[in-house]
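<given_protein>
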Amino acid sequence: MTVSGAREVLDGTALLCWGRTCLAGLEHRREEINALNVFPVPDADTGTNLLATMRAAVEAGEAAAARATTGASAAHAVAVAMAHGATTGARGNSGIILSQVLRGVAEAVDGGPFTADSLRVALARASELVREALSVPIEGTILTVLDRASAAAAGCPDQALAGVALAAADGAAEALGDTPFQLGVLREAGVVDAGARGLVVLLDSLVTMTRGEAPARPEYPRPPAVRSTSAGDAEPQYEVMYLLADSDESRVAALRARLGELGDSVAVVGDGGGCWSAHVHCADAGAAVEAGIAAGTLSRIRVENVAYGSHRDVWSGHRATGEHHRDGGAVTRSDPNFAARACDARTWPTRAGDSAISAPAADSTQVVVGALGSAAARPPGTPADRGVLAVVAGAGAAALFEDAGAVVLAGDEPVTATTLLAAIRRMPNREVLVLPNGALPAHELVAVGVAARDAHRDVLLLPSASMVQGLAALAVHDRGRIAVDDAFAMSEAAATTRWGALRAATERALTMVGTCEPGDGLGLAGHDVVVIERDVRTAGRTLLDRLLAFGGELVTLLIGAAAPEGLGDELAAHIALRFPGVEVIVYSGGQQGDSVQIGVE
């Protein structure tokens, strides 16, 4: 491969070009790298993971390049963005390590463009970061090859970037050839390390950029046969990954140690800007997620089955970041003992568990998460050992949920993921259905659902974004059904309940329908302000007109503690006048914040 316009100093544009060259090289070698992978598990996706991680880095770099000015500052901005993109988009252990190579580059170009000395610093720093990140460094892997590349760059007398890049790449290629002699599993399979092969591709891409042509490398032997594990004999093993924020070095170190107790292939790395990515292979995915919850705020949680020779997404979740892979996650169940589902409120689990049924959505940020192992095996007609846990604010609302058979977790004060997890674990039931009622964001519910699952309890978190949706779900709860059917019916009831709320504005603020002043009545459809009126009573009438314009048979009014006297009766009378035939039920909820919660079924 020959590239015109070889460079000796890389500015921001050139660094981005190097990233794109890496992408092309990884795409070309992806199947080769996938075939080489036998360590730490024979999962055949190292090349794919490296490609996905580099793609995330390049996309972030392109966004930074569009905003940056020219010169040294642009090089630094692009490099930092690529490091952050790789950290947040890392796939697999190999992707985690790649992110640290890019972080090394970012730190090396802090004061200027990328030069020969920058490359030396970058490789040395990357080697240091990777060793710090791994709980148990294993020689004969990408770790060793990165060390050798760094040593070769440091020992190169050439002061030109092209010469140092070639020395580093050649050192890495030589070390790659030695990996079978350092790691027994590679020697037995007759292959070199897959992740290290990917690192050589990255360094060769830099040589291509700086010299104008790619160095020649041998074709590395592939395993003679695909190694597989019998699903009947294999011990469950999962790859768990997530992003961590709102943490610090001491808590990250404690997380790394805890993950080391739970499994192997542990790596917890940072982008240098307060974001960390964690990776572990373990048998207890829930415990790994719980360890992350204790260390900070989790997002983009991924659990993949690696015990059966196939790496398939089990679920993923993330906070809003500008990237959308169907918020709340996409799920494929890969074994009968770990059926975790995360989906938006438009999609509900079916009896099979691997497909979805569409339903009208009332809120698209909630999730359904669960483990439905033994529940389906219960003999027909046998009542399930199943309980419902609901997060509820207000004494009146709590009484409603309790009368309907739910266990109530008080939500008058903010509920945390830890609080909800503890409440689930206090439930004595084999099967637990959880109505979060909008208490936590989707990514935290995903984390809680996986952490709560264990060999003795199946847990489903249902998509109720408000208490009125939770009441609608609870009305169709039937312990006589199997768990997945009960969850489907309750989820559908919640999803088909349009909901809104009335509040009094406490300060001047800009909303999607204009600016409100203190004392104004606000009408919300879901979480969005859609009505601003002079008072809550007027806002309530206008909001009901809009909610019922789409039809409805039953309206539930849950009256809050701050509601004006007689508001419930006034709104009920308005419905009877404007929408004859629509049934109205008024409850005293006693919740703070919302003067009224409104549900339309």
User: Anything to note?
Assistant: The first helix runs from residue 12 to 36. The chain is about 45% helix and 20% strand.
